[in-house]
Design brief:
single chain; alpha+beta; six-stranded antiparallel beta sheet; 12 strands; globular; manganese
Length: 485
Amino acid sequence: MDIAAAWPNSLAALGPAFYTELAPTPLPDPYLVGINPSLAAALGLDAQRLASRAGVEAFTGNAPVAGSRPLASVYSGHQFGVWAGQLGDGRAILLGEIESPAGPHELQLKGCGRTPYSRMGDGRAVLRSSIREFLGSEAMHGLGIPTTRALIVTGSDAPVRREEIETSAVVTRVSPSFIRFGHFEHFSARGQIDELRRLADYVVDRFYPECRGTPKFAGNPYAALLEQASERTAAMVAQWQAVGFCHGVMNTDNMSILALTIDYGPFQFLDAFDPGHICNHSDDAGRYAYNRQPQVAYWNLFCLGQALLPLIGDQELALAALESYKTVFPRELQARMGAKLGLADAREGDRELLEATLKLLAADRVDYTIFWRRLTRHVAGDSSEAVRDLFLDREGFDRWLARYQERLGAGTAEAAQRMRQVNPKYVLRNHLCEIAIRQAKLKDFSEVETLLALMQSPFEEHPAHEDKAGIPPDWAQHIEISCSS
């Protein structure tokens, strides 16, 4: 199939130390599970053509995409805080880049067979995890959070063993770049400094050209790169925390150098607010609990700093580059949480108000998304009873509400408008995904399509889908997601 005039592959230009060229491994009788028309349009692609039989074959890895140069990249990383050594694209193959109205983007097939970096894995993805990534990445994009995206999902009845026998799928991921912290760690750990410099220069020149002339670091572009990655990562994680997103497996090989949310495995949006919530069933020690994500992000950046140190050349300079995380994260989080409360400006005492808000939510395990949406409606003129009904401690809520209303003051119409733009009605809750997955296993993909549309405009009312914005059913508490998700 030919969908682009040319498929440049700038990663391949870095040299054979960075990748292995190989073709995807075909799957029998592939079928279309879902397609993202809005992303296709943004990339200048024809969604109907992608959804055709030829498109399904191509994006399952069964037929070559004319002009592409498939390859799998090598990287290393820390997993659950432990150095794991060489990793790499164990089930993903990069087709190359397409030039689009949105700029150059890489397209990558995930789940298309073994690569030299699969270790003991089978190189496959299952239908369940592929649907979760397809919908999860689009949900994050709809919320305005930096993320990789997903263009198309195809399935096959070919069996794959996880906790049980499941069926195969391939998801086509889209990103300006899939380079991770782990790419830098790989070459640094091996003492391959020439390759490390080549990689850093590539990232700087392609994505961070301003790093070439940063006076703060006396012309050291690698320290400037570390600072840019730190600040962007801080802003991204602040957005995660504000919307109640749990990544679940923040290994250094799952951290994007562009500060994009990447690798949707055991992710979850909070239901009941529990700061210590652990969404990953495999995370026995709770390393990646919701309230630990900001600290883990900094730890991962420190690992990136260590990897870049041979290029930066000065440990104090590297530490100075990392220091901005400690300023940017609290500032970004304060701004985003203030916006959720409808506050137009920052004042003394706001931090205490925000802390009191979260403490109140945690004490009664109040549904995080529903609280903010009902509070928005109250500020817009509705009674406070719908918000109050979420709490067991009604008197505690009444005291908090009086304090909040005093801080909010006049101009509630403007405040409500601000709140509508940051407090979604819909997030991709686990049970919604689970329902879509169960139907998809029966070859009914209508719920995947419905959720995709909702997640693309999560701040809108969508009155026909009120059931998807309500309190989760009791069985949702028993859904377990793990690294195989």
